Amino acid sequence: MALALTVVVPCFNERANVAPMVAALDKALAGLAWEVVFVDDDSPDGTSAEAKRLAESDPRVRCIRRIGRRGLSSAVIEGALASAAEHVAVIDGDMQHDETRLPLMLEAVRNGADMAVGSRHVEGGDSSGLSSPLRVKLSETGIRIAQTVTRTSISDPMSGFFLLRRELFDALAARLTGQGFKILLDLILASPRILTIAEIPYKFRPRLAGESKLDVLVLAQFAGLLLDKALRGMVPLRFISFALVGMIGVAVNLIVLQLATAAGADFGKAQTIGTIVAMVANFQLNNQLTYRAQRLKGHKAWRGLALFMVVCGLGAIANIGIAKALYAENGLSLFSGAAGAAVGVVWNYAVSATLVWRVR
Ligand code: GDD
Ligand code: MN
What is the pTM (predicted TM-score) of this model? Predict the structure, then answer.
């Protein structure tokens, strides 16, 4: 029997959910030729080991263990690319999505839809599993922005629960950004033509085991994905993020300068304190946001902070040097200052990427 469906399950620290997921799929997909691919980013809780334990006795179970990488979208992409089935479905590994809807989704695609999307927001759907009012609000705002950008009326564009023909996925794969966690949105935006989407309602279940990995900072990455689309990938997303963080740093610097001056420090001392605080804040923001995938933790974070301060210190020296030289030449202070600052940002970005966060 030809393989009808590969179910891709991105997971991070979902050990306790692996066996229940296989059992649930076994029940929901009875009569179909299916397989499941768990894509685990080397979770410390041993999610991969658990998936491979099941795979030993069940050839329908496969596992991709990725080392040194994090990211929901890229995990989904790699899982789907490992499929040779006729269709690919993506479902969360924490049992919050309703796997019993999969046959219905498959049918919708077999009947001609480009994609079937599990939706919490159409008639019969329910998002009561979303934990806090803040998350509900964030989710609503995201949906509105996404609808505008995708020019579709899809009611749950943030869904991580969908199904499509493998061929279609393969065709779109090279155009995906793989950034952040909104892979569905990434797919829709990657398509040169407007996709027909069948929305299948489901009830978002509360999480039973483990904890959610998606927070407000991940939503900032989502904004980045949209910005990247708007700029058509001309400017690297990381650079935009780095530059925005830099602007926040300037604000932090000025605020601390004001506060320290008000508290009686002389200008030189106040500006030194302001600069140091801004650097620490920038390191934190970049570590959480710009380089989220290679986030430094523990003693590596301290080492990274020290390196970051050295790199930015050199960047500041370059900035001042270039600005001074230009100013001496043309006497245009605003232009010279901006040119110096631009060189400084590019230097800080390029050097800290390779040295501090070791991006390959
Ligand atoms: N491999 C891998 N790498 N898997 C990950 C990563 C990662 O970096 N981060 C999260 N996952 C897995 C989780 O283990 C889980 O199976 C799934 O991706 C979704 O993550 P959750 O942390 O459970 O997400 P959620 O419940 O908060 O988010 C839900 O709502 C979003 C829309 O707001 C999910 O339904 C998402 O799919 C959906 O996009
Ligand atoms: Mn979840």
Answer: 0.66
